[in-house]
Amino acid sequence: MGLPFRLILAGKLLPFFVVNQIQAVMMVLVGIFLVPLFGSEALEMPASLPLLVNWWAVSAAVSLAAVAWALLIASIAQTSEQATIVGGVGNVLMGAIGGIMVPQICHAGHHAETGRALADGLGAGRLSCRDAASWQLCRHSAQPRPTARLRGALAGPCHLAQSPRPCRPLMNETLCSELKALIVEACDRDCDPASIGDDEALFGPEAPLQLDSLDALQLSMAIKKKYGLRLADSKETRRILSSVANMTGHLDAWLAQRR
Fold first, then answer.
1. What value does the mean pLDDT take over residues 100-113?
2. In the chain, what are the domains?
3. Cα separations (Å) of 206 from 40, 142, 181?
4. Residue 148 has pLDDT above 60, yes or no
């Protein structure tokens, strides 16, 4: 027909790009309105215009990458059967490499690393110290170094000693007991809530309860439902959920701010 190549390319790219953007909008709407109907947290979109623009830019980049991948397969494959095989296998391999198509519950190595990290952070090498409004992790060893962080911790109301015994003010025992019962219920563990130690690690293969990432999600949802506190997926959240003592201190401080 004598059409320029760029028009032919645009005719193949633009329709699929528009369809991908419509799919992205539909997924967002499902997360906002449909997911809460099944008891999960609603998707929260950015409130400011610049963040929404950034979100759309990421969505557009993903759409263009997907369409470009399809064009690459179409240019390499000689038959529809080859395109089907290369496309299907390629999608699975890239999804697996990126971790998108592999549930976190299957990441045994990830859980092992999480358990070791929690053990290092909350075992004999760290102490949980709380000031008037928040909890902080204070590293100590048999030969403590005079670092600024250590001096700041020593200057606060909670003083570090060279014993592995945690130093902190009295916790809210009622809240602590409630959280232990909530852990047993949300994570479906057959044990007495009172048997859970305040400072024992909750996650990892070496922890008594051996909680994993799926348990963390269910526990976060249970805390959101019972107390209204939303825990985002972050390193700080993993620290908060790592022990009953950390959960009690963080939740107690948060509830005190809301009163």
1. 50
2. 5-35+49-98 (no CATH), 110-258 (1.10.1200.10)
3. 29, 24, 21
4. no
